[in-house]
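Hi everyone, sorry if this is the wrong subforum. Our group has a chain we'd like a structural model of before ordering constructs, and none of us has done structure prediction before. Sequence below.
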Amino acid sequence: MSVAIKFKAHPGQKEIISKRKRYNTINTGRQAGKTTLAKYLIIETAVTDREQVGYFVPQYNLIKPIWDSLVSKCKAIILKKDWTAKTIKFRTNGEVEFWSMENQNAGRSRTYKRVIIDEGSLQKNLLEIIDENLLATLAIKEGDFYAFGTPKGLKNDWYKLCHDKTYAHFELESTANPAFSQKELAVIKSKISEKVFLQEYKAKFVELNENAFLNYFDWNLHTAEQLEWSLTDRTILCFDFNYDDTTATILQIDKEEMGLKFMKEFRVVGGTRALCLAIKKWCSDNKKDYAFWVTGDRNGNRKETNSNSSDYEIIRQVLSIPYTRFYDTRSMNFQHNFSRDIINECLMYNLIKICRKGCPDLAIECLSAIPTAEGGLHKDSKDHKNNLFDGFRYGVHSQFASIKMVQIFAKRIFKLEK
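Answer:
Right subforum, don't worry. Here is the predicted structure as tokens:
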């Protein structure tokens, strides 16, 4: 079966295709066309060469966008697709297999003609996975290797891989893609710092605040002494449940101008019922009559021994909030390192604002939060409890489950060109 590949490459993509070697790293700015090039590389091997491709991403939720796009583009030549197994087999007998590198055994026991890593800069132990899992998959067929990513500072595996002289290294600025206009770039540049602009859009490695959990948090940009309450914006209570103190933050979603506004924090000792009563009293005293939505720690579904009610059941009863206004609180909490990427993405686009008058402790926790060696959130019983911070990240995840969702929201807020 003969299949012609229709791929209109822009000059930056053409240079990579013409100068590529067996092992390649491609450091890209945002929207530079890496996903389009990755699709071409899949089709080139799986369809034209009738071989097997392994496609690797840091988290499972990053598989679906490339999966959907590939299925749409190639539906006429797909023999079988299996979302459970994460495989697509083509009529040429070639195949692509998708993996999340959350699986420590990703790729082991497989044989590929081509390996592609997408969003490699988001993977904490990238070099370990490449050395221990992926290089062996290429040995039998003497296959080739492509890793794509956007720079994330200097102290990580992506930086080391892109400076490994045994690899061919390429850079793609955002404007390498003709669809990314200079006008749009100017709008974004006016809203972010110079270092962030160089990293995210010029594909340059720069030193950011590597010791902070929120690398992009800027006190002057992301906090304000006061913010205006809205009567029409969706208003969400973001809960975190603990033995020492229980916390909640009021979040308002401004979909027209500002993004996520964290307006008021609550912290009580005495459990969820005491917290809800404090919220109820504050609303009464300040004449705040909101139809609250609820999100928070998934551990709130466990029933308390004394009352035989879960935290969320208590919230529903005391605050008279129907379950139809609860975000999904049944699945597992997002991992801290994933939350870190999503929140930093929001901060980069200035989609988060914290009211210092209403949320003084939350503002400090965002400024002082530090990561663990594994990329999680450091916590202790004194200076870094981070209970309000956890509620804060649950609030962010109520709106954004992926980086792509953040980018779509930012485009609407900034009214950028399509």
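For your construct planning: The first helix runs from residue 11 to 19. DSSP finds 14 helices and 14 strands in the chain.
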